[in-house]
Protein backbone atom coordinates (compact mmCIF):
# COMPACT_ATOMS: atom_id res chain seq x y z
CA UNK A 1 0.00 0.00 0.00
CA UNK A 2 1.36 3.43 -0.91
CA UNK A 3 2.33 5.56 2.10
CA UNK A 4 -0.45 7.88 3.24
CA UNK A 5 0.28 11.47 2.25
CA UNK A 6 -2.21 13.61 4.12
CA UNK A 7 -0.34 16.80 3.28
CA UNK A 8 -0.81 16.20 -0.45
CA UNK A 9 -4.57 16.04 -0.09
CA UNK A 10 -6.53 18.54 -2.18
CA UNK A 11 -10.26 18.98 -2.73
CA UNK A 12 -11.81 19.69 -6.11
CA UNK A 13 -14.08 22.74 -6.16
CA UNK A 14 -17.14 23.29 -8.36
CA UNK A 15 -15.04 25.76 -10.38
CA UNK A 16 -12.59 23.00 -11.33
CA UNK A 17 -9.79 24.36 -9.12
CA UNK A 18 -8.29 22.26 -6.34
CA UNK A 19 -7.86 23.67 -2.84
CA UNK A 20 -5.02 22.28 -0.68
CA UNK A 21 -6.41 20.41 2.32
CA UNK A 22 -4.28 22.11 4.99
CA UNK A 23 -4.11 25.89 5.29
CA UNK A 24 -2.44 28.07 7.91
CA UNK A 25 -5.01 30.15 9.84
CA UNK A 26 -4.15 33.69 10.89
CA UNK A 27 -7.06 34.95 13.02
CA UNK A 28 -5.72 36.57 16.23
CA UNK A 29 -2.18 36.22 14.89
CA UNK A 30 -0.71 39.44 16.18
CA UNK A 31 1.33 42.01 14.31
CA UNK A 32 4.98 41.18 14.68
CA UNK A 33 4.15 37.45 14.95
CA UNK A 34 2.08 36.68 11.91
CA UNK A 35 4.72 37.39 9.29
CA UNK A 36 7.10 34.84 10.86
CA UNK A 37 4.36 32.21 11.05
CA UNK A 38 3.32 32.78 7.45
CA UNK A 39 6.95 32.66 6.36
CA UNK A 40 7.47 29.36 8.22
CA UNK A 41 4.39 27.67 6.78
CA UNK A 42 5.36 27.37 3.08
CA UNK A 43 8.88 26.38 4.17
CA UNK A 44 7.31 23.52 6.16
CA UNK A 45 5.29 22.54 3.08
CA UNK A 46 1.96 24.39 3.47
CA UNK A 47 0.51 25.65 0.21
CA UNK A 48 -2.55 27.40 1.60
CA UNK A 49 -2.91 30.49 3.81
CA UNK A 50 -6.18 31.82 5.22
CA UNK A 51 -6.56 35.48 6.19
CA UNK A 52 -9.23 38.19 6.21
CA UNK A 53 -9.45 41.97 5.99
CA UNK A 54 -11.01 41.88 9.47
CA UNK A 55 -7.90 40.25 10.97
CA UNK A 56 -5.95 43.44 10.28
CA UNK A 57 -2.91 41.45 9.19
CA UNK A 58 -3.18 41.12 5.40
CA UNK A 59 -0.08 43.25 4.89
CA UNK A 60 2.09 41.03 7.11
CA UNK A 61 0.57 37.90 5.60
CA UNK A 62 1.69 39.12 2.16
CA UNK A 63 5.14 39.89 3.52
CA UNK A 64 5.37 36.43 5.09
CA UNK A 65 4.49 34.74 1.81
CA UNK A 66 7.16 36.71 -0.03
CA UNK A 67 9.74 36.03 2.69
CA UNK A 68 9.09 32.27 2.43
CA UNK A 69 10.67 32.21 -1.01
CA UNK A 70 7.87 30.01 -2.33
CA UNK A 71 6.40 31.57 -5.49
CA UNK A 72 3.03 33.28 -5.00
CA UNK A 73 1.37 31.12 -7.67
CA UNK A 74 2.21 27.95 -5.72
CA UNK A 75 0.28 29.16 -2.68
CA UNK A 76 -3.50 29.13 -2.29
CA UNK A 77 -4.42 32.45 -0.70
CA UNK A 78 -7.84 33.11 0.80
CA UNK A 79 -9.08 36.42 2.16
CA UNK A 80 -12.53 37.69 3.15
CA UNK A 81 -14.83 40.64 2.58
CA UNK A 82 -15.54 42.37 5.88
CA UNK A 83 -19.10 43.12 7.02
CA UNK A 84 -18.96 46.94 6.66
CA UNK A 85 -17.75 46.58 3.04
CA UNK A 86 -20.78 44.75 1.63
CA UNK A 87 -21.89 47.72 -0.49
CA UNK A 88 -18.28 48.28 -1.62
CA UNK A 89 -17.23 44.86 -2.91
CA UNK A 90 -15.05 46.18 -5.76
CA UNK A 91 -13.26 48.52 -3.35
CA UNK A 92 -13.00 45.77 -0.75
CA UNK A 93 -11.10 43.37 -2.98
CA UNK A 94 -8.85 46.16 -4.26
CA UNK A 95 -7.98 47.13 -0.69
CA UNK A 96 -7.21 43.52 0.27
CA UNK A 97 -5.05 42.98 -2.83
CA UNK A 98 -3.16 46.16 -2.03
CA UNK A 99 -2.64 45.05 1.57
CA UNK A 100 -1.49 41.60 0.50
CA UNK A 101 0.74 42.93 -2.26
CA UNK A 102 -0.65 40.55 -4.84
CA UNK A 103 -2.71 40.87 -8.01
CA UNK A 104 -5.21 38.09 -7.19
CA UNK A 105 -6.53 35.83 -4.47
CA UNK A 106 -7.43 32.19 -5.00
CA UNK A 107 -10.54 32.51 -2.90
CA UNK A 108 -12.57 35.52 -1.81
CA UNK A 109 -15.14 34.78 0.88
CA UNK A 110 -18.03 36.79 2.23
CA UNK A 111 -16.87 36.65 5.86
CA UNK A 112 -20.36 36.71 7.43
CA UNK A 113 -23.91 36.88 6.05
CA UNK A 114 -24.25 40.28 7.66
CA UNK A 115 -24.18 43.60 5.80
CA UNK A 116 -23.20 46.40 8.18
CA UNK A 117 -23.60 50.12 7.55
CA UNK A 118 -20.15 51.66 8.08
CA UNK A 119 -21.78 55.04 8.79
CA UNK A 120 -23.84 53.65 11.67
CA UNK A 121 -21.53 51.45 13.68
CA UNK A 122 -22.99 48.09 14.59
CA UNK A 123 -26.15 48.60 12.52
CA UNK A 124 -27.22 46.43 9.61
CA UNK A 125 -28.40 47.99 6.36
CA UNK A 126 -32.18 47.93 5.91
CA UNK A 127 -31.97 48.10 2.10
CA UNK A 128 -29.22 45.54 1.50
CA UNK A 129 -28.39 42.02 2.57
CA UNK A 130 -26.00 39.17 1.71
CA UNK A 131 -27.89 38.27 -1.48
CA UNK A 132 -27.10 41.77 -2.80
CA UNK A 133 -23.50 41.33 -1.70
CA UNK A 134 -23.22 38.01 -3.53
CA UNK A 135 -24.61 39.64 -6.69
CA UNK A 136 -21.69 42.08 -6.49
CA UNK A 137 -19.13 39.38 -5.64
CA UNK A 138 -20.14 37.44 -8.76
CA UNK A 139 -19.00 40.42 -10.83
CA UNK A 140 -15.44 39.86 -9.59
CA UNK A 141 -15.17 36.51 -11.34
CA UNK A 142 -13.49 37.14 -14.67
CA UNK A 143 -11.71 40.30 -13.52
CA UNK A 144 -8.56 38.31 -12.73
CA UNK A 145 -8.67 39.52 -9.13
CA UNK A 146 -10.33 36.43 -7.65
CA UNK A 147 -10.05 32.84 -8.84
CA UNK A 148 -13.00 31.62 -6.75
CA UNK A 149 -15.74 33.14 -4.63
CA UNK A 150 -17.38 31.62 -1.62
CA UNK A 151 -19.08 32.26 1.70
CA UNK A 152 -18.37 31.76 5.37
CA UNK A 153 -20.55 31.26 8.42
CA UNK A 154 -23.55 30.34 6.28
CA UNK A 155 -26.06 27.91 7.80
CA UNK A 156 -28.65 26.03 5.79
CA UNK A 157 -31.35 28.73 6.01
CA UNK A 158 -29.10 31.42 4.58
CA UNK A 159 -27.66 29.09 1.94
CA UNK A 160 -31.20 28.22 0.81
CA UNK A 161 -32.06 31.90 0.55
CA UNK A 162 -28.92 32.60 -1.46
CA UNK A 163 -29.12 29.61 -3.81
CA UNK A 164 -32.83 30.12 -4.50
CA UNK A 165 -32.48 33.78 -5.41
CA UNK A 166 -32.68 34.38 -9.18
CA UNK A 167 -29.62 36.64 -8.98
CA UNK A 168 -27.47 33.73 -7.78
CA UNK A 169 -25.71 32.50 -10.93
CA UNK A 170 -22.56 31.13 -9.27
CA UNK A 171 -22.82 28.51 -6.52
CA UNK A 172 -20.28 29.37 -3.81
CA UNK A 173 -17.15 27.26 -4.29
CA UNK A 174 -16.60 27.05 -0.53
CA UNK A 175 -18.50 27.51 2.73
CA UNK A 176 -15.97 28.10 5.52
CA UNK A 177 -17.53 27.10 8.84
CA UNK A 178 -16.52 26.17 12.36
CA UNK A 179 -15.69 22.45 12.48
CA UNK A 180 -14.12 20.38 15.23
CA UNK A 181 -15.37 17.46 17.32
CA UNK A 182 -17.17 19.91 19.63
CA UNK A 183 -19.07 21.38 16.66
CA UNK A 184 -19.15 18.71 13.95
CA UNK A 185 -22.18 20.10 12.03
CA UNK A 186 -23.06 16.94 10.05
CA UNK A 187 -26.29 18.36 8.58
CA UNK A 188 -24.63 21.50 7.29
CA UNK A 189 -21.66 19.57 5.88
CA UNK A 190 -24.11 17.21 4.12
CA UNK A 191 -26.02 20.21 2.74
CA UNK A 192 -22.79 21.73 1.39
CA UNK A 193 -21.84 18.39 -0.20
CA UNK A 194 -25.26 17.95 -1.81
CA UNK A 195 -24.98 21.39 -3.40
CA UNK A 196 -21.42 21.01 -4.65
CA UNK A 197 -20.01 23.43 -2.09
CA UNK A 198 -16.66 22.47 -0.54
CA UNK A 199 -16.56 22.74 3.24
CA UNK A 200 -13.55 24.36 4.85
CA UNK A 201 -13.22 23.85 8.60
CA UNK A 202 -12.18 26.77 10.79
CA UNK A 203 -11.02 26.49 14.43
CA UNK A 204 -10.12 22.84 13.69
CA UNK A 205 -8.17 22.61 16.95
CA UNK A 206 -10.96 24.22 18.98
CA UNK A 207 -9.25 27.67 18.92
CA UNK A 208 -7.47 29.38 21.84
CA UNK A 209 -7.49 27.42 25.13
CA UNK A 210 -9.10 24.51 23.36
CA UNK A 211 -10.94 22.09 25.64
CA UNK A 212 -10.19 19.39 23.05
CA UNK A 213 -6.55 19.19 24.17
CA UNK A 214 -7.69 17.61 27.43
CA UNK A 215 -10.35 15.40 25.86
CA UNK A 216 -9.86 11.78 26.93
CA UNK A 217 -10.82 10.23 23.59
CA UNK A 218 -8.51 12.50 21.59
CA UNK A 219 -5.65 11.95 24.03
CA UNK A 220 -6.09 8.16 24.08
CA UNK A 221 -5.96 8.01 20.28
CA UNK A 222 -2.99 10.40 20.19
CA UNK A 223 -1.10 8.30 22.72
CA UNK A 224 -1.85 5.01 20.95
CA UNK A 225 -0.60 6.42 17.64
CA UNK A 226 2.38 8.37 19.01
CA UNK A 227 0.89 11.62 17.67
CA UNK A 228 -0.14 14.96 19.16
CA UNK A 229 -3.83 15.75 19.88
CA UNK A 230 -3.57 18.53 17.27
CA UNK A 231 -2.38 16.11 14.58
CA UNK A 232 -5.26 13.76 15.41
CA UNK A 233 -7.77 16.61 15.10
CA UNK A 234 -6.38 17.70 11.73
CA UNK A 235 -6.33 14.23 10.19
CA UNK A 236 -9.86 13.62 11.52
CA UNK A 237 -11.03 16.70 9.60
CA UNK A 238 -9.22 15.70 6.40
CA UNK A 239 -10.67 12.18 6.58
CA UNK A 240 -14.16 13.61 7.16
CA UNK A 241 -13.76 15.38 3.82
CA UNK A 242 -13.10 19.02 4.60
CA UNK A 243 -10.05 21.24 4.44
CA UNK A 244 -8.58 22.32 7.79
CA UNK A 245 -7.15 25.71 8.78
CA UNK A 246 -4.99 25.33 11.90
CA UNK A 247 -3.62 28.61 13.26
CA UNK A 248 -0.37 29.01 15.13
CA UNK A 249 2.18 31.77 15.52
CA UNK A 250 4.68 29.33 17.00
CA UNK A 251 7.05 28.00 14.35
CA UNK A 252 7.51 24.59 16.00
CA UNK A 253 3.71 24.16 16.13
CA UNK A 254 3.27 25.35 12.54
CA UNK A 255 5.71 22.60 11.57
CA UNK A 256 4.27 19.91 13.87
CA UNK A 257 0.75 20.59 12.57
CA UNK A 258 1.98 19.74 9.08
CA UNK A 259 3.73 16.53 10.13
CA UNK A 260 0.79 14.39 9.08
CA UNK A 261 2.16 11.93 6.55
CA UNK A 262 2.57 8.17 6.79
CA UNK A 263 -0.41 7.42 9.01
CA UNK A 264 -4.17 7.69 9.14
CA UNK A 265 -7.06 7.11 11.52
CA UNK A 266 -8.96 3.83 11.37
CA UNK A 267 -12.72 3.86 10.81
CA UNK A 268 -13.08 2.91 14.46
CA UNK A 269 -10.93 5.86 15.61
CA UNK A 270 -12.90 8.26 13.40
CA UNK A 271 -16.15 6.86 14.85
CA UNK A 272 -14.85 7.34 18.40
CA UNK A 273 -14.06 11.01 17.69
CA UNK A 274 -17.45 11.43 15.99
CA UNK A 275 -19.08 10.12 19.18
CA UNK A 276 -17.51 12.73 21.51
CA UNK A 277 -20.64 14.21 23.10
CA UNK A 278 -19.37 17.59 24.42
CA UNK A 279 -20.50 20.57 22.36
CA UNK A 280 -18.98 24.07 22.20
CA UNK A 281 -18.84 26.83 19.64
CA UNK A 282 -15.97 29.31 19.27
CA UNK A 283 -17.79 31.85 17.05
CA UNK A 284 -21.31 32.95 17.97
CA UNK A 285 -23.48 35.61 16.34
CA UNK A 286 -24.41 37.63 19.45
CA UNK A 287 -21.96 40.40 18.50
CA UNK A 288 -23.84 41.00 15.25
CA UNK A 289 -27.13 42.89 14.79
CA UNK A 290 -28.63 40.06 12.71
CA UNK A 291 -29.11 36.37 13.42
CA UNK A 292 -26.63 34.24 11.50
CA UNK A 293 -26.99 30.86 13.18
CA UNK A 294 -30.52 29.48 13.38
CA UNK A 295 -29.51 26.14 14.85
CA UNK A 296 -29.23 25.04 11.21
CA UNK A 297 -25.45 24.97 11.33
CA UNK A 298 -25.38 21.64 13.15
N1 LIG B 1 -14.43 32.43 8.74
C1 LIG B 1 -14.44 32.74 10.01
O1 LIG B 1 -15.33 33.44 10.52
C2 LIG B 1 -13.36 32.19 10.88
C3 LIG B 1 -13.56 32.17 12.27
C4 LIG B 1 -12.54 31.61 13.05
C5 LIG B 1 -11.38 31.14 12.46
N2 LIG B 1 -11.21 31.22 11.10
C6 LIG B 1 -9.96 30.74 10.45
O2 LIG B 1 -9.60 29.46 10.97
C7 LIG B 1 -8.31 29.56 11.55
C8 LIG B 1 -8.15 28.60 12.72
O3 LIG B 1 -9.06 28.85 13.74
P1 LIG B 1 -8.64 29.47 15.16
O4 LIG B 1 -7.57 30.47 14.96
O5 LIG B 1 -9.89 29.88 15.83
O6 LIG B 1 -8.08 28.26 16.01
P2 LIG B 1 -7.38 26.84 15.89
O7 LIG B 1 -6.52 26.75 14.70
O8 LIG B 1 -8.41 25.81 16.12
O9 LIG B 1 -6.48 26.90 17.21
C9 LIG B 1 -5.48 27.87 17.37
C10 LIG B 1 -4.93 27.78 18.79
O10 LIG B 1 -4.28 26.52 18.99
C11 LIG B 1 -2.92 26.75 19.37
N3 LIG B 1 -2.12 25.69 18.73
C12 LIG B 1 -1.95 25.51 17.39
N4 LIG B 1 -1.19 24.42 17.15
C13 LIG B 1 -0.86 23.91 18.37
C14 LIG B 1 -0.07 22.82 18.79
N5 LIG B 1 0.52 22.01 17.90
N6 LIG B 1 0.05 22.58 20.12
C15 LIG B 1 -0.57 23.37 21.03
N7 LIG B 1 -1.33 24.44 20.70
C16 LIG B 1 -1.47 24.71 19.37
C17 LIG B 1 -2.57 28.14 18.88
O11 LIG B 1 -1.56 28.69 19.68
P3 LIG B 1 -0.33 29.61 19.12
O12 LIG B 1 -0.80 30.40 17.96
O13 LIG B 1 -0.03 30.49 20.31
O14 LIG B 1 0.79 28.69 18.79
C18 LIG B 1 -3.91 28.85 19.08
O15 LIG B 1 -4.06 29.25 20.43
C19 LIG B 1 -8.21 31.03 11.95
O16 LIG B 1 -6.92 31.41 12.29
C20 LIG B 1 -8.79 31.67 10.72
O17 LIG B 1 -7.85 31.70 9.67
C21 LIG B 1 -12.20 31.71 10.31
TrEMBL record:
<dbReference type="Pfam" id="PF00248">
    <property type="entry name" value="Aldo_ket_red"/>
</dbReference>
<keyword id="KW-0560">Oxidoreductase</keyword>
<dbReference type="InterPro" id="IPR020471">
    <property type="entry name" value="AKR"/>
</dbReference>
<protein>
    <submittedName>
        <fullName>NADP-dependent oxidoreductase domain-containing protein</fullName>
    </submittedName>
</protein>
<dbReference type="GO" id="GO:0033554">
    <property type="term" value="P:cellular response to stress"/>
</dbReference>
<dbReference type="GO" id="GO:0042843">
    <property type="term" value="P:D-xylose catabolic process"/>
</dbReference>
<dbReference type="InterPro" id="IPR023210">
    <property type="entry name" value="NADP_OxRdtase_dom"/>
</dbReference>
<comment type="similarity">
    <text>Belongs to the aldo/keto reductase family.</text>
</comment>
<dbReference type="GO" id="GO:0019568">
    <property type="term" value="P:arabinose catabolic process"/>
</dbReference>
<dbReference type="GO" id="GO:0004032">
    <property type="term" value="F:aldose reductase (NADPH) activity"/>
</dbReference>
<feature type="binding site">
    <location>
        <position position="111"/>
    </location>
    <ligand>
        <name>substrate</name>
    </ligand>
</feature>
<dbReference type="InterPro" id="IPR018170">
    <property type="entry name" value="Aldo/ket_reductase_CS"/>
</dbReference>
<dbReference type="InterPro" id="IPR036812">
    <property type="entry name" value="NAD(P)_OxRdtase_dom_sf"/>
</dbReference>
<feature type="site" description="Lowers pKa of active site Tyr">
    <location>
        <position position="80"/>
    </location>
</feature>
<dbReference type="GO" id="GO:0006066">
    <property type="term" value="P:alcohol metabolic process"/>
</dbReference>
<feature type="domain" description="NADP-dependent oxidoreductase">
    <location>
        <begin position="22"/>
        <end position="276"/>
    </location>
</feature>
<dbReference type="GO" id="GO:0042180">
    <property type="term" value="P:ketone metabolic process"/>
</dbReference>
<dbReference type="GO" id="GO:0005737">
    <property type="term" value="C:cytoplasm"/>
</dbReference>
<keyword id="KW-0963">Cytoplasm</keyword>
<feature type="active site" description="Proton donor">
    <location>
        <position position="55"/>
    </location>
</feature>
